[in-house]
Amino acid sequence: MNGEAHEHAAASGLAVARSLLQAVLTQMANLPLAILLLVSLAFVPLGVGLALLPPVLFALRGLANQQRRWAAEWSGVEIVVPYRPRPENASGFGIVKWLLRDPATWRDMLWTVVNSVTGLVLAGLPAALVVYGLEGVLVAPWMPNVHTFGWGPFWPLSDYGLTGSVGSALLGSLMLLVGWQLGPSIMRAYAIVNRSMLGPTRGRLEERVRELTETRSETVDASAAELRRIERDLHDGAQARIVAVSMTIGLAEQLVKDDPEAAARLMAEARQASGTALTELRDLVRGIHPPVLAERGLDGGLRALALTLPMPVDVAVDVPGRAAPPVESAAYFAVAEMLANAAKHAEAARAWVDVRHNGSALVMIVGDDGRGGADPAAGGGMRGIERRLAAFDGTLAVTSPEGGPTVVTMELPCALSSPKT
């Protein structure tokens, strides 16, 4: 019981502190952002608002995303990020159109106005109850000339003779108890209110279901094609060589008494063929899940990959932990495909790889100084990688003007396990 009591006390204390933080934040961030939004929208017809809107809206998204994280971490209320993906190569007026055409942007605007009130009243309620409760218990009893808390809602207590020190102590204790006990529940209610405005709309959820259905279909097709490739490679490669080895050994067995030299030559051929078959099997396994990933992680795997290419590749990896094996495998093959394209098609003299974890996703940037012109819409390996990443809710963006350079940015949402040691 003592352990549970300590846990509840800690949760209540955190709820009160977070309540105070939210109340202050709404007045220092939400209210100024709401005013800036109104001013920016008002000046859009004059052109000035077009320059003001993007930074203000990005700041609003940052604040809304912080609220989403706090709702999940503090109250266990998950709020899905509803924003539409940014169009490739969007800049200038294109960014403004993308932002204003996203329904989530307008819901954020509504939220920042509403939250200026709900954040102060609802989120700040636990802190207000505790602060006023402490005042009633510790301050008001020593100020007999001051009526209980000095404000209206507690005047009816005078009808029962509960004025002055006694009334202040009783009311203070009650408010302190309510604020302390109900703090976590009030903060959860505030998170639920935020979810109603910051979460995806029904239309967005339906759109997301369609996206997931398409992604699932593409993933199934890609998996089927991969299985057919493995079957073909086994049948035409290693299996054929193993059959040939078996036949060669059979011939050697027949010749071992009559022509030992010929039998020895056949056994040497069989040994060479078995070594070739083993190499092909190893290559096939690497194509499914490279052993180097399990042994050395993504960092070591990419550095080993870079050494096999016919051009110098600069590799920088800053991933403080391990992603799930399927995610690491997808990341490895995505980078491998981009580097293969740089070597085979782009006629690049140098390439570079930068892989980092931004807290929620693996961000992989692969660039080369080749002739450019890469386009995922043309199909091929790049389109296959795009489908592979989509199975993990990943994205791929390509910047590749004619004449180069080519820069491919890929993101894979994932969490990391224990840090590297």
TrEMBL record:
Its EC number is 2.7.13.3. Residues 31-198 form the Putative sensor domain. It comes from the Bacteria. The chain crosses the membrane at residues 33-60, 109-134, 160-180. Pfam families: HATPase_c, HisKA_3, Sensor. Residues 226-293 form the Signal transduction histidine kinase subgroup 3 dimerisation and phosphoacceptor domain. InterPro entries: HATPase_C_sf, HATPase_dom, Put_sensor_dom, Sensor_HK_TwoCompSys, Sig_transdc_His_kin_sub3_dim/P. One of its GO terms (molecular function) is kinase activity. Residues 330-414 form the Histidine kinase/HSP90-like ATPase domain. Keywords: ATP-binding, Kinase, Membrane, Nucleotide-binding, Phosphoprotein, Transferase, Transmembrane, Transmembrane helix, Two-component regulatory system. It catalyses: ATP + protein L-histidine = ADP + protein N-phospho-L-histidine. PANTHER family: NITRATE/NITRITE SENSOR PROTEIN NARX-RELATED, NITRATE_NITRITE SENSOR PROTEIN NARQ. This is histidine kinase. It comes from Actinomadura gamaensis. The lineage of its organism: Bacteria, Bacillati, Actinomycetota, Actinomycetes, Streptosporangiales.
